[in-house]
Specification:
about 375 residues, 13 helices, alpha/beta, five-stranded mixed beta sheet
């Protein structure tokens, strides 16, 4: 297995200075203030679960977050999958986005019956503190990010801070316990879905092809990922989208992979590549290359109607992929389960790639001794 030490140390440096992206909204006006209360809530939640289960292993799943009911169900399904794969462990889910946490709790969206849905999720720092206070003997932290980019660097920073008691003065953990975790190499970091270009890219390409080969036989299958702007392209992780497209096209040239945020790989760039390949008409199937189907999948990808189309600026980021390809002369289709497109966590084969990353997760080296990497 490839070493991740230098990768992790660099990730921390970037995560400590870079702002987080958001797909739940563009403002942070609901940022949580009562930090001590948040620690107390999570400490009690975890303590009660551990007392009931009597397990000594914890798995913490870290997603960016969402406010959509179908996404909550995808997270529920993921927790169930992890409970099956790790029967010796208590499994916890956290969101890294304050905005998603607050808006999910407030009930920003409704279920398919029109009922407001509220869910309480918490940040990794609170659950990690609670897991440490409960003194689990082994801890797995699994990133549910797709690429090892800016958001993954924040996951690494959360674990580093936990191991160094780096949160708030009155929430310190038992130093001897943290030393023991480090000395016995008992805290592990599971990598993002497309972390390893040599292993993960071919594995995910095969899983996607198994699901969508019939669509690719009829027309284009275009995947929409998130991506990072150039100034936040941690470890140049955007290249994973290009690598995935290249791998998929070995299986069928009708596969394309674009993003909403990666320069030179927007929907108009996907269209340009299609036209260069001689695909001037026909069907285009759209799928989300994101862990869940949230705002980006429902609006940026699948949004229909005038609200999502500006004829004066066809390449506008406000135009959905559905409207963009439809107005470009293609028969555009968004496959759905029920009323929703699917995210990657809903696809069992793809989800199992994440599960295997946890099973083979590596010890987080040097986490206890230094929160900040040496120059």
């Amino acid at each position: 297995m490839k070493t991740i030490k230098s990768f992790i140390l660099a990730a921390v440096a970037i995560a400590l200075v870079a702002p987080a992206f958001t797909s739940c909204g563009d403002d942070d006006d609901n940022k949580k203030e009562n930090i001590v209360s948040e620690y107390t809530i999570n400490d009690n939640l975890v303590a009660n679960k551990k007392a009931s289960s009597k397990k000594n292993v914890a798995v913490l799943l870290v997603a960016f977050g969402s406010t959509w009911d179908n996404a909550f169900k995808a997270f529920d399904k993921t927790i169930e999958a992890y409970e099956a794969a790790f029967p010796e462990a208590d499994v916890y889910m956290s969101f890294s986005s304050d905005i998603c946490i607050n808006r999910a709790s407030a009930g920003e969206n409704v279920d398919d019956n029109g009922n407001i849905v509220r869910r309480d999720y918490y940040e990794p720092r609170y659950l990690l503190h609670a897991i440490g206070k409960a003194q689990y003997g082994k801890i797995y932290v699994q990133s549910l990010q797709v690429i090892p980019g800016e958001e993954f660097a924040a996951v690494v920073a959360s674990v580093k801070k936990f191991m160094n008691n780096g949160y708030i003065a009155d929430a310190h953990l038992d130093d001897k316990y943290l030393e023991t975790l480090a000395e016995t190499e008992s805290i592990f970091l599971g990598m993002p879905l497309l972390n390893d270009p040599d292993a993960d890219i071919p594995a995910v390409a095969q899983k996607l092809h198994a699901l969508y080969k019939d669509e690719a036989a009829q027309g284009v299958v275009a995947f929409m990922g998130h991506g990072n702007p150039d100034n936040y392209d941690t470890f140049k992780a955007n290249v994973r989208y290009i690598q995935l497209e290249e791998e998929l096209q070995k299986l069928n040239p009708n596969y394309y992979v674009g993003t909403v945020d990666m320069p030179d790989n927007y929907k108009q760039d996907v269209l340009e590549r299609m036209r260069e390949a001689g695909i001037l008409s026909g069907k285009v199937y759209l799928h989300a290359l994101m862990s869940i189907a949230g705002d980006h999948a429902h609006n940026d990808m699948a949004g229909e109607g005038d609200e999502y189309w500006n004829p004066m600026n066809p390449e506008s980021e406000d135009n959905s992929w559905y409207e963009f390809f439809s107005h470009a002369g293609y028969e555009t289709i968004v496959p759905k389960v029920g009323k929703h497109p699917q995210g990657l966590l809903e696809l069992e084969g793809v989800r199992n790639v994440w599960v295997n990353h946890t099973k083979y997760a590596e010890f987080l080296e040097d986490a206890y001794h230094s929160m900040y990497p040496e120059e």
